[in-house]
């Protein structure tokens, strides 16, 4: 099983949105073979809590513009690691310290990376 075209397009839109707010190290993995709850994980980081929130706001705004609404949002109050669940896509926006500590990309490195185009 591979990620749907819809999930891939959402991931690319989210990556562009994160890039617009200067997110760093934007990567995505096709987790559809490992998880039944989603197709794609997109991970990016920011230097501070304020930037984490700005990235989250921009991702939500741009995905809403293409008809995708988050079904769940976690961590927004703390601003250190915000998870946005769009069903087919889960976006992780992490403060760089949390990114280094939890190393999600290492956990999911056996999953295929997704080409995000110019947003990478």
From TrEMBL:
MF GO annotations: ribosomal large subunit binding
Main subcellular location of this protein, as a coarse class: cytoplasm
Keyword annotations of the record: Cytoplasm, Repressor, Translation regulation
Cellular localisation: Cytoplasm
GO terms under cellular component: cytoplasm
Entries under Gene3D superfamilies matching the protein: Beta Polymerase, domain 2
Signal peptide coordinates: none
A Pfam family this chain is assigned to: RsfS
A single BP term in Gene Ontology: negative regulation of translation
Cited function: Functions as a ribosomal silencing factor. Interacts with ribosomal protein uL14 (rplN), blocking formation of intersubunit bridge B8. Prevents association of the 30S and 50S ribosomal subunits and the formation of functional ribosomes, thus repressing translation.
Matching PANTHER family: IOJAP SUPERFAMILY ORTHOLOG, MITOCHONDRIAL ASSEMBLY OF RIBOSOMAL LARGE SUBUNIT PROTEIN 1
Subunit structure: Interacts with ribosomal protein uL14 (rplN).
Recorded family membership: Belongs to the Iojap/RsfS family.
NCBIfam families: rsfS_iojap_ybeB (TIGR00090)
Identification of the protein by name: Ribosomal silencing factor RsfS
């Amino acid at each position: 099983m591979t990620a749907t075209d819809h999930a891939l397009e959402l991931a690319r839109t989210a990556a562009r949105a994160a890039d617009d707010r200067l997110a760093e190290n934007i990567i995505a993995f096709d987790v559809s073979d490992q998880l039944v709850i989603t197709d794609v994980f997109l991970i990016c980081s920011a230097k501070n809590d304020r930037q984490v929130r700005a990235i989250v706001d921009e991702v939500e705004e741009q995905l809403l513009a293409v008809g995708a609404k988050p079904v769940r949002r976690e961590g927004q109050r703390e601003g250190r690691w915000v998870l946005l669940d769009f069903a087919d896509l889960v976006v992780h926006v992490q403060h760089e310290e949390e990114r280094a500590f939890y190393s999600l990309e290492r956990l999911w490195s056996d999953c295929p990376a997704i080409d995000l185009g110019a947003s990478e």
